[in-house]
Amino acid sequence: MKLLEDRICSEGVVRNGDILKVDSFLNHQMDVSLFREMAREWKRRFAGSEVTKILTIEASGIGLACIAAEEFGCRAVFAKKTAGSNMDAEVFSTKITSFTKGKVYDVVVSKRFLKPEDRVLILDDFLANGCALLGLMDLVKQSGATLVGCGIAIEKGFQDGGKRIREMGVQLESLAIIDSMEGGTLVFREE
Ligand code: 5GP
Question: Is residue 42 included in any domain, yes or no?
């Protein structure tokens, strides 16, 4: 998606070789007009999929999921990284290793919010090694809901998450795929 690629080029900063910092528009300060265009693009790519629920993980996916839920006309639910005291006892639970923090989180979603009749689209800001997506896919599987596919803002194509998930036969729609960031120069995959 050209609009997103242009924004990454103008505002993205490469850190430690394999981390892309895009916190001026994606995951700290948020450009909601850009999110709207991204949500429309996912709606186009998943046309006819009859999505009933958008699933993401806190915190960075929540803004994207909210705008996308409006476009798809459904609700958004985010997986929580810790089970707080007012969390339902009945939860689907999985473990996710954070790529940026190197920590393992227990991640939960209340059983009230994912049902077997749901058709779920998973969204997230980044795809690196695929831990976050695989964990969210596990929650969908536990619920008996149907996974429609996964939408990602920025996929780092030089890490193997995208390959692993596509090989599982999942429809994965990344709006920008970066195949290399060597020397701070971004190389995008042609659509
Ligand atoms: P994965 O689980 O696919 O290895 O990593 C995806 C998760 O790690 C995303 O939810 C995202 O928050 C974080 N992440 C991975 N790579 C980057 C990156 O280059 N920049 C930022 N800002 N977050 C990243």
Answer: yes
